[in-house]
Amino acid sequence: MKVSFLGNFGARPEVAKAILGKVTEPIEPTVLFDIGDTQRLIPALAEAEIVVSHVWKPDFPEAPRLKLLQSVAAGLDLIDVPALPGGVTVCNVDGHEQAIAEYCLMTMLALSHRLVDIVTSFRAGPWTAGGGAGGGQPHGEIFGKTVGIVGYGKIGRDVAKRAASFGCTVVAANRGPIADKGDAGEIYPLGELDHMLPRCDVVVIAAGLGPETRGLFDARRLGLMKPTALLINIGRALIVDEAALYDALKEQTIGGAAIDVWWRYPSQAEPNARPSSFPFHELPNVLMTPHCSSATDGARDRRLGGVAANLDRFVRGEALRNVVLTT
Amino acid sequence: MKALFLGNVAADTHAGIKDELPPALDCVILNDPVDRSLLPDAAKDADILVSNRWMADYPPAPGFRLVQSVATGVELFDMASLPRGCAVCNAFGHETAIAEFVVMAMLALHHRFFQIAGEFRERGSWATSWVQSGVPHGEVRGTTLGIIGYGRVGREVARRAAPFGCRIVAANRSPRDKDADVERIYPLAALDEMLPRCDTVAICTALGPETTNLLDTRRLSLMKPGAFLVNIARGQVIDEDALYAALSEHRLGGAAIDVWWQYPTPTEPNRRGSRHAFHALPNVIVTPHNSGWTGGMVRRRWDEIADNLGRFARGDSLINLVTTA
Q1: DSSP classification of residue A289
Q2: Residue A32 half-sphere exposure, CB side, CA atoms within 13 Å?
Q3: Residue B72's pLDDT is what?
Q4: At residue A278, what are phi and psi to the nearest 5 degrees?
Q5: I need a surface site. Which of A80, B56, B291, B312 has the fewest CB within 10 A?
């Protein structure tokens, strides 16, 4: 069975090597990091029955034998589905939801407790930040707060489960109907998001990027949020209007944000590229991380193990897991 | 009936509850921590003291019948200086906030949050990101959390940590019934068996003879290399020198410290919390003894204190009675 590992994620040495180390069935791998190297991409795709990649471009060469496109990510936004040959099953991978849910709770707690401000101030000397015997304004807590989750999939449910144990009221909005509400008290159709937003003290964006979610948080919807509300985005940056969010945070029409997914990413020419054309890094009410909420050791093991298990299933002719679609 | 509100926390409390107090209660507020010139006159005929302290060298207060602490700890009240029979009550409402702090700190330590967010903000560094093949950080799922002191705070921590998929063990001085959140409760004397199992140790115990210097050099060395320590209890539960050595030599992975070995004084308001520079260690999250000081805690605690003063004025039974002097 010929398997081609492609691109700067699937063909990254430690990723491909870890997956191959977990695969038990016999396979013949090729590994191609640079998908712009057409000379090597043409023969790889001509032979491959399985491709492991998070990307599929419209100008990819013919892949006549391809049956399984196994993504190494959850989001399929870099896979051009119409460009795939017919009869290909596309699978994604999970195992990151627990790590991302931890990030969401960590950041909603840190923003509410003003942790970064208090630690920074105390490191410099004064005991006065954040209440207590040192004086100063008490900080916040999440007990009794309403957490609204936009996109109630695996991540959203894992956030809900954890937030509920803190005494939060959890509501969610989802594109499709939800049969099992999990720990959410109420599920809004995505079309009624405008009714949910004014209720929320924390809004967590845990949706994928698609036609219904692109630009979903524009200036008008951000304006529906409470002036103290916190926004956490671990979905995709393009769900939020960049300029509108910057303005809302700078003018403090919302309370704060934790942002892990960005409008701009680094390149080889610019490895330390700022993640937005707006200086979010100058705003005191923003926690920012470099798209790493899922980058835990546990999530990596679960995801790479999940890819390897699916390759084994395919070789053995067993039913695949995490099937997203078949072309 | 006269109540003396002494100190800045008590003064804030008075401001927060004055509308709920019995109209007949005559309140005197002294919030200056340095100037004691007004204290003798205020203390000599007060029935109630609301404060966080009453020291041995304070003036006579023969009329005190209720001492209402504005905090949970009452170690700063000199019992011998209080009139015999005086009720000493404390206040809670902080366990929710502190439990949030403990879980937050545990997450931030395992996720290397301060390092990653700091480098990204300051230098635009994506080095930790999957985009640039960064080294993964940790998560709390599947790790073992050990809670020392399984009282109000400890149980609230366990309840919140359990849905993260943590394995939870605890150690307590007196026997406690196991609940659904913890796998095992060790007697405090068996702490040495618990420590090597833990990826995170959270200290939630009161300070007493059994817990003073409980985590000394020997016990800190029983912890896993790279394990994290969170202390929201009292500084003296840990040997200061031993902890600094373990952290600066990277035997422990990091710590979150909210409670200290020394505190500011009126003449030295920015006094450091330790003779060691914990604040300069990058793997230590330092906070000024305010893990519990949320707006919600303040409101809950005010409500308890107002309730108790009303009970006292009406002659009803008190809540949160710690001891009688």
Answers
A1: -
A2: 21
A3: 85
A4: -105, 145
A5: B56
CB pairs under 8 A between A and B: 209
pLDDT tens for A198-240 read 999 999 999 999 999 999 999 999 999 999 999 999 999 999 9
Would you say the CATH fold of B95-286 matches that of B2-93+295-324?
A: yes
- Say whether B50 sits in a helix, a strand or coil: strand
CATH class assigned to B2-93+295-324: alpha beta
Question: Which is nearest to A117 in space by CA: A290, A284, A249, A289?
Answer: A284
How many CB atoms sit inside 10 A of residue B78's CB? 14
Name the band, by pLDDT with cuts 50, 70 and 90, for residue B131: low
Buried b (16+ CB within 10 A) or exposed e, A204-234: bbbbbbeeebeebbeeebbebbbeebbbbbb
Q: Cα dihedral angle (B100, B105, B107, B113), rounded to 10 degrees?
A: 130
Predicted confidence (pLDDT) at residue B33 exceeds the cutoff of 70: no
In the three-class reduction of DSSP (H, G, I as helix; E, B as strand; rest coil), residue B207 is classed as: coil
Q: Which residue of B has its CA nearest to A142?
A: B100
d(CA A146, CA A53): 38
Q: What domains, with CATH codes, occur in chain A?
A: 2-95+297-326 (3.40.50.720), 97-288 (3.40.50.720)
CA distance A87 to A325: 10
Q: Where are the beta strands (DSSP E) in A228-309?
A: 230-233, 256-259, 286-288
Domain ranges of chain B: 2-93+295-324, 95-286
ipTM of the complex: 0.89
Q: Collapsing DSSP states into helix, strand and coil, what is residue A128?
A: coil
Q: List the single residue in B with minimal CA-CA distance to A121.
A: B287
Is A236 considered catalytic here?
A: yes
Residues of chain A with pLDDT under 70: 133-134
Gyration radius of chain B's alpha carbons: 22
CATH of domain B95-286: 3.40.50.720
Residue B133 has pLDDT above 80, yes or no: no
Asked if A296 lies within 8 A of B165 by C-beta distance, the reply is: no
| CA separation for the pair B210, B179 (Å, rounded) | 24
Answer whether B129 sits within 8 Å of A291, measured CB to CB: yes
Contact indicator for A202, A148 with CB cutoff of 8 Å: yes
Residues facing B215 on adjacent strands: B238
How many separate helices (H) and strands (E) can be counted in chain B? 9, 13
